[in-house]
Design a protein that fits this description.
The complex is a heterodimer of chains A (357) and B (330). Chain A has a single domain, classed as ABC transporter involved in vitamin B12 uptake, BtuC (Orthogonal Bundle), CATH 1.10.3470. Helices cover 73% and strands 2% of the residues of chain A. Chain A has helices at residues 7-24, 26-29, 33-56, 66-84, 88-113, 118-138, 140-143, 181-205, 207-217, 219-225, 229-255, 260-264, 266-279, 285-311, 318-322, 327-341, 345-352, and strands at residues 149-150, 173-174, 177-178, 257-258. In chain A, a hairpin with a 2-residue loop joins strand 2 and strand 3 (177-178). In chain A, helix 4 (66-84) packs across helix 11, helix 5 (88-113) runs antiparallel to helix 11 and helix 13 (266-279) crosses helix 14 (285-311). The longest helix of chain A has 27 residues, at 229-255. Chain A starts with 6 loop residues before the first helix and ends in a 5-residue tail after the last helix. Chain B has 330 residues and is mainly alpha-helical. Chain B is globular and about 60 Å long. The chains are: A mainly alpha (357), B mainly alpha (330). The interface between A and B is large, with 38 and 39 residues.
Chain lengths: 357, 330
């Protein structure tokens, strides 16, 4: 391990900085509703994926329950906003309730199964997540069932809210962007994501992070040196769960809707996995790159494939291959190839470039 | 206390668990006729799940490979069998039992052949490069599952598909006031036959001996000069074929299948494998029957709890025996 940053390292960091800058000015750079939607989703998923990276990349535990924690946070906020009405108190209660439930579940699962093999843990979390999803769709008087819950966000985030007025008493515009509640909501999402991400970055840079890497590299040795592996693993699992839950709360406030599809479904878990692996495990910055690429692909690649399929409609086979419905298929193929040939993902492979061994 | 334990041990130990569950359920349910119906349903469900889970468990025991894409074989088996049955619709509708059986047989054979071929492909292309690397195994088999599900969606479409059942398996037999669906009895018998065949192969043949030795200590078997990698491929193929057969049976049982079928069953299969203990056929059978029985009893007694029953069962058993009921892998 060298301590001097390589060229690739700098490239990765620069990319992440550029992404952060783009996200910071997203409402001004891309002025339509869909782009803002994409930007907010990217912010939330960066946090979610980075917290998953804490598990899979820094400790080598594979959990399939990450969407469950995300869902706890989202449903916590959704239920409290629905029951208590829109307000900050509801948000805080929901966030804390979601985080607490996540913490309790994480401790229970962790103590029950982190002692055993990685594979056992993966299976148990998978089972737990599926039960959570079934419960969410069954307890319909509480969670809204399959339809989910729609609710109102706090007053500040309503599109009709005017942050600043100009001379004529209308919403003030800066560079053509209305300073309304939507903008405030976006910056709420951005700021909370940034804070959560920085907290995680600090965590992996701290002595605890070093121990985690030691456990990942050689569990028996870490144990022999005197670190309690199970305790550290449970700790990380809990931290990751809480952060995922908070990300869920933030996303729930942004969407003003929570349902099984947006918060609990297995496809989100698959998205997270894809993002972590594509971006690069164990780097934190990889989470940023993976989340950005995959969310962009989700929103724009399908359109692109649709246009491409239409363009080649006369040719044999090609339109079938490029059918927008096939996009997950290709993503799966790319995923497998990546795990084979670039197990370190984009960030990891890039960071190796220019390294002198 | 010790004497009690000795007595229980002599009569079969943990193998008595399903019996105990059944007896408790009889007391709780009260009406013997509905109890019999539920028990038969539970056993049939258990046997079908056993078919799906046995391959997964063996593959894990022998190769230390956990295949998260296993449920893809189940879905493929179900859809292949359903397509064959639909294609042979004329034979199914015929009055002749012979033609009925032939159509059903053709469907199962198609599913099994497909399972064998897919298993070979999966093992050599997808899993071989990542032996001994659990993290990448999980990731790669997950990726393969995504791709397989998308292939099913592309080939058969997303709409639910009805599965025609052969005439002679329709309806139910009445014994006294107890109604037993014929298909359930059939599923139970078929599962039992497969179990006995597997048991005999594992315990009475030379190949079975090698497999068991491989589960116990792989390096030693290799050192003795056996090509254990070929054995791996064979076991993997058989495991996939069994999963496909299980899927085919399930398709006939549900009569309406969607591409989500594999994903739904995967959870149950995992729970069964965890309960039973990885790597042993007996454990898997035990786990499958427990899951089948508990799911049916709880579904009758407390429908609200039914969906969480498997999970609760797993937690209870893991708290009691962290390695499952009858593990073969240390």
């Amino acid at each position: 391990m060298t301590t001097t940053p390589t060229l690739g390292d700098r490239a990765v960091k620069l990319t992440v900085l550029v992404i952060a800058g783009l996200l910071l000015f997203a409402p001004f750079l891309f002025q339509d509703i869909r782009s803002l939607e994409v930007a907010a989703r990217i912010c939330v998923f960066i946090v979610l994926v980075a917290s998953y990276d804490l598990l899979i990349g820094y400790t080598g535990i594979v959990s399939f329950a990450h969407t469950m924690f995300f869902g706890f946070g989202a449903y916590g906020a959704a239920i409290s906003l629905k029951q208590m009405g829109p307000g900050w108190d509801a948000v805080i209660v929901g966030a804390i309730a979601g985080a607490l439930v996540s913490l309790v579940m994480a401790i229970a699962i962790g103590l029950l199964s982190l002692r055993v093999k990685a594979i056992f843990f993966a299976m148990i979390t998978l089972a737990a997540a599926s039960v959570a999803m079934v419960l969410a769709s069954q307890l319909s008087h509480f969670t809204g069932g399959e339809d989910g819950i729609t609710y109102k966000a706090p007053q500040l985030f309503k599109t009709a809210t005017k942050l600043m007025l100009n001379d004529e008493g209308k919403v003030m515009r800066v560079f053509g962007v209305k300073l309304n509640g939507k903008l405030a909501a976006y910056y709420f999402v951005f700021a909370s994501s940034l804070v959560l991400f920085l907290v995680m970055l600090r965590l992996v840079g701290s002595p605890v992070g070093t121990v985690l890497k030691a456990i990942r590299e050689n569990e028996a040795r870490a144990e022999a040196i005197g670190y309690r592996v199970v305790a550290y693993r449970t700790f990380v699992f809990c931290i990751a769960a809480i952060i995922a839950s908070l990300a869920g709360t933030v996303y729930a406030i942004w969407l003003k809707y929570t349902g099984p599809d947006t918060a609990l479904s297995f496809s989100i878990m698959i998205d997270i996995l894809l993002m972590v692996v594509i971006g690069g495990m164990g780097t934190m910055y990889g989470a940023v790159i993976g989340a950005v690429l995959l969310v962009l692909a989700q929103y724009y690649l399908r359109d692109l494939m649709g246009t491409a399929a239409e363009a080649v409609a006369d040719m044999p086979l090609l339109p079938f291959i490029l059918d927008p419905d096939r996009w997950l298929f290709w993503l799966g193929v790319i995923f497998i190839l990546l795990v084979y040939f670039f197990p370190k993902g984009i960030a990891g492979t890039l960071a190796q470039k220019g390294a002198r061994t | 206390m010790d004497q009690l334990r000795m007595t229980i041990e002599r009569f079969g130990g943990v193998n008595l668990l399903p019996v105990a569950v059944a007896l408790v359920a009889l007391v709780l349910i009260g009406a013997p006729s509905s109890w019999v119906t539920l028990t038969v349903a539970g056993l049939a469900m258990g046997m079908m799940i056993f078919l799906m889970a046995s391959g997964l468990s063996l593959v894990f025991g022998l190769m230390d490979v956990l295949n998260f894409g296993h449920s893809a074989f189940v879905s493929f088996g179900a859809f292949v069998a359903a397509s064959v049955l639909a294609w042979l619709g004329g034979w199914l509708g015929a009055d002749s039992i012979l033609l009925n059986v032939a159509a059903l047989f053709a469907a199962f054979v198609a599913a099994i052949l497909f399972g064998l071929a897919a298993g070979w492909f999966f093992e050599t292309i997808i899993i071989k490069p990542v032996y001994h690397d659990h993290l990448r195994q999980i990731l790669i088999t997950m990726g393969a599952l995504i791709v397989a599900e998308q292939i099913i969606l592309a080939v058969w479409g997303g709409t639910p598909m009805t599965v025609p059942r052969p005439n002679f398996l329709e309806g139910s037999i009445l014994i006294g006031d107890v109604a037993i669906e014929i298909y359930r009895a059939f599923a139970f018998i078929l599962g039992l036959i497969v179990y006995i065949a597997l048991y005999l192969t594992l315990n009475r043949t030379r190949i079975g001996l090698l497999i068991r030795a491989g589960v116990e200590n792989r390096e030693m078997v290799e050192a003795l000069g056996f090509r254990i990698d070929r054995l791996f491929v064979a076991v993997f193929m058989v495991g996939s074929a069994l999963a496909a057969l299980g899927g085919a049976m399930w398709a006939g049982y549900e009569t309406l299948i969607t591409p989500a079928l594999g994903g739904e069953l995967m959870i149950v299969v995992f729970i069964v494998v965890i309960i039973g203990g990885l790597g042993s056929i007996e454990g898997t059978l035990l786990g499958a029957i427990m899951v089948g029985l508990v799911a049916n009893y709880v579904g009758f007694l407390a429908p609200k709890l039914a969906l969480a029953s498997n999970m609760l069962l797993m937690m209870a058993i893991l708290l009691w025996r962290p390695n499952g009921l009858r593990p073969a892998v240390k």
